[in-house]
Amino acid sequence: MEADRTKKQDAHFKLRWQYLFYFLLLLLVIFLILAVVRSCSIKPKLKKPPIPVSVATAIAQDVPVYLNALGSVVPIDTVTVKTQIDGILQHVYYREGQLVKINDVIAQIDPRPYLAQLEQFEGQLARDAAQLANARVDLKRYAILYPKGAVSQQVYATQAALVKQLEGTIQLDQGQIDQVKVNLIYCRIVSPINGRVGLRLVDPGNFVQTTDTTGLVVINEMQPITVVFALPEDNIPAVTQAVARQKTVIAKAYDRTQQQLLDTGELITLDNEINTATGTVNLRAQFPNKKWLLFPNQFVNVNLLVNVLRHATLTPTAAVQRGPQGEFVFVLNKNQTVSVQAIKTGITQGENTVIESGVNPGQQVVVEGADQLVDGARVSVATKAHA
Fold first, then answer.
1. H helices of the chain, where?
2. Is the domain 53-62+311-386 a CATH 2.40.420.20 member?
3. Residue 126 needs a FRET pair 20 to 30 A away by CA distance; which of 105, 111, 171, 199 works?
4. 32-61 pLDDT, tens per residue?
């Protein structure tokens, strides 16, 4: 009995150790499974790479301040040449588009009718001069006979009046001759100004009259030439201050695309009143037009230099960002990170903007890649440039 009891105890003890072994083995398996699952679920934390950007260095330089306006080219002098006498247009001595100088003969009206009149009036003058000479001789004779009573006072007075009458006739004849000579001068039509001739309006062979409204041709002075443009009334103080500060206010004329510089001139005057309908004032600038790039009635863009900002800080306009708090730039730090810097901007000239405060010359600002940046972000500089 005792032996059977001992066997049962040994068997029971052995079974308990087997259960304990399997339990520990199960715990080990569960632990290993949890470890594998955790290792698979936890991803390694990767370091974020720096953001590639392009930067530019802010510089200090003098910046010209221009006022921009649209203007129209206007000749200093433009003349519609008309005839001052009636007659047949006999010759035209110019080519369309030709440059002419003052007093150059450009057309000829048939002078023969006026030459005939001149001959007629000269004949009348000769006849009346002979009559006047005879009347004066008679008057001298009567002046001797009248005191002696040989002729009456009435005869003497009548003769004196006849002399006066014939003297008046001589003056009339001379005036007619002078008038015909003027008409003969008008038969030669000359240019009243230096300029370029336009298209011919009347062909030779036509009868022209002083009442014609179209004229014979239009001549425009081309060198120099002016541009009339308008500026808002708010710009008047800047213009007047520029005129008072400097003797010559530079004006530049560009084409419609603002790409080609046509000519450089100077402001010569501004109007004496503001157009109340548009709130603008007209100004006139004069250009030498040596290259013939300015043409009457051409539309051009005028840049008027009214000031120069000395040693202003410039950055590319692309660096200027705008947010809820206003304008700012990303400034590159020495540790290859960027900082948000609030700025105050001034005028924009071309691709650059004047920074009035917030950035100093020599600092580098981000011009490309700023849309991915935040304050303190790490960056890698791809390219560097100057403003």
1. 2-41, 112-148, 153-186, 236-245
2. yes
3. 111
4. 777 776 765 555 455 678 888 888 888 888
pLDDT, residue 15, reads: 64
pLDDT band of residue 12 (cuts 50, 70, 90) is low
Identify the CATH number of the domain defined by range 66-76+220-309: 2.40.30.170
Asked, as a colleague might, if the bond just before 224 is cis with ω within 30 of 0, I would say: yes
Q: Which helix (H) or strand (E) holds 79?
A: strand 78-81
84-218 has CATH 3.40.1280.10 classification:
no
The yes-or-no verdict on residue 5 having pLDDT over 70 is no
Cα 146 → chain centroid = 86
With 0-12 / 13-18 / 19 or more C-beta atoms within 10 angstroms meaning exposed / middle / buried, residue 46 is: exposed
Token representation of residue 384: 């560097």
Average pLDDT, the chain: 87
Asked whether the beta carbons of 206 and 194 are under 8 A apart, the reply is no
Written as one letter, the residue type at 281 is V
- DSSP structure class, residue 95: -
Edge-to-edge order in the sheet of strand 78-81: 78-81, 217-220, 195-197, 99-100
Q: Which residue has the tokens 């001379």?
A: 174
pTM as predicted: 0.68
Q: Specify whether the CB–CB gap between 37 and 184 falls below 8 A.
A: no
pLDDT in tens, 54-95: 888 888 888 888 899 999 999 999 999 999 999 999 999 999
Q: What is the pLDDT at residue 50?
A: 85
Q: How far apart are CA 221 and CA 252, in angstroms?
A: 20
For range 251-280, the mean pLDDT = 92
